[in-house]
Write a structure and sequence with these properties.
- The chain is mainly β.
- The protein is 4% helix and 35% strand.
- The strands form eight sheets. It has a four-stranded antiparallel sheet. Strands 8-9-10-11 form a four-stranded antiparallel sheet, with no helix packed on it.
- The radius of gyration is 20 Å and the shape is globular.
């Protein structure tokens, strides 16, 4: 797997949930009904969910994930950090079942799952998605978990059938053989398993009876029946689930604004950057991208700096804050590495108050080593205002196999 600069400026858009309209919206509809603008409709995003009190849900917490492999086990360690002292507050362990897809192997149909992003460090193995920069991987891996980091979605491969796959989930700190398979019909083709914000449903892409790709969901409790949620653009793009009630957007680099009214995302051949949230699930399309705000020169979105501004990595390798309404830069560029350093910086997370962000500095096109990560792991906390002083992060658990997931 390679972690280099993301490609040329990708293009962005969004589909998500509007609670007052969700019961009447048509799954997969490209636009809200006339007179039901996403701008005017009440929408609380993921703030509408009541979360249990835990180190993973308290304010001012950074959450990371890394995949650990031993001779007889594979598991995901999720850690809650104090962003002032950078000491861990708590950890949770998600045992990866033997049947779960955590890497893709030659001779077997490749399966799309963010868990492959997290666990497969071999550069010669087929990945799940075409873009494998950290800026793309981090939001994909975040979508595996509920808001409280108590459940993780998985894709399970059928033994003896290289074509069939099913979705399921594991609970934190459970045993390796303690997982829930949500489906199991012969010939099923379920991929891109991700978790709803409340952990009550697993969402995925699947092949319908007519052979077309669809977005579906299955409840984690009860009979696990299939609910069709709308059309999908194949399996090559990941899913992100947001809002209450939950809705899916199929796109890359999905970032939800603090007020929940807008999102950023990227897909090939669709132009735009920032969009209002929508009242139905489906893939980003040229039709749904009509009203996008384009952030000029934005190669990758790091996150939101408040409700009206977005932090971007630019084509020159620096970072800039941009107005999400006008698409124009606000303030000057923030240079993390110089043109002669021989390294690149990728943005990971923005702090909740928008005053700082985390970057990963590494060699261009550096390869992940499944045992040791990079030779020189380098994470830094950088002020979003020019002239501030960056600080490094140093801990044995913060290596280049670490993926930064959230900062509350």
């Amino acid at each position: 797997m390679r972690l280099g600069l993301a490609g040329k400026a990708a293009v962005f858009a969004v589909l998500a949930a509007l609670p007052l309209q969700a019961c009447t919206s048509r799954p997969g509809a490209d636009r809200p009904a006339s007179g039901s603008s996403a701008r005017s409709a009440p929408y609380l995003g993921n703030r509408g969910y009541a979360l249990p009190n835990s180190p993973f849900t308290r304010e001012d917490t950074v959450v990371t994930a890394r995949c650990d492999m031993g001779a007889r086990y594979v598991g995901v360690m999720v850690t809650a950090w104090d962003p002032e002292s950078w000491k861990p507050r708590a950890t949770r362990w998600f045992a990866v079942p033997e049947d779960a897809v955590f890497n893709n192997m030659p001779g077997v149909d490749a399966v799309h799952s963010p868990l492959v992003d997290l666990c497969d460090g071999k550069s010669d193995a087929p990945g799940s998605y075409t873009t494998e920069s950290l800026e793309h991987i981090a939001p994909r891996v975040r979508a595996l978990f509920d808001l409280s980091y108590t459940r993780m979605a998985v894709v399970l491969r059928d033994s003896g059938d290289k074509h069939a796959s099913h979705v399921g989930f594991v609970k934190s700190d459970a045993q390796h053989d303690d997982f829930v398979r949500l489906s199991g019909a012969a010939g099923d083709d379920e991929q891109n398993a991700v978790m709803s914000p409340d952990g009550r449903t697993v969402w995925f892409t699947y092949t319908g009876q007519d052979g077309r790709k669809r977005i579906g969901s299955r409840p984690t409790e009860g009979d696990h029946h299939l609910s069709d949620e709308g059309p999908a653009a194949g399996d090559d793009l990941p899913l992100t689930i947001t809002g209450k009630p939950a809705r899916a957007v199929q796109a890359n680099m999905v970032h939800l604004a603090p007020d929940g009214r807008r999102l950023t995302a990227t897909v090939p051949k669709v132009f735009g950057t920032v969009f209002d949230t929508w009242n139905s699930s489906g893939p980003l399309s040229r039709t749904s991208a009509r009203d996008a705000v384009l952030l000029g020169g934005c190669t990758a979105v790091v996150g939101w700096v408040g409700d009206e501004r977005v932090l971007c990595r630019t084509s020159s390798g620096s970072f800039r804050t941009m107005n999400a309404r006008t698409g124009r830069a606000v303030g000057g560029p923030i240079n993390v590495v110089g043109p002669k350093d021989g390294t690149v910086a990728e943005g990971m997370l923005v702090s909740p108050d928008g005053t700082k962000f985390i970057v990963s500095v590494h060699q261009p096109n550096a390869e992940r080593d499944p045992d040791y990560g990079y030779h020189t792991p380098d994470f830094r906390v950088v002020p979003t205002a020019r002239g501030g002083t960056a600080s490094g992060l140093a801990d044995a658990e913060l290596d280049e196999l670490t993926v930064f997931l959230s900062w509350s």
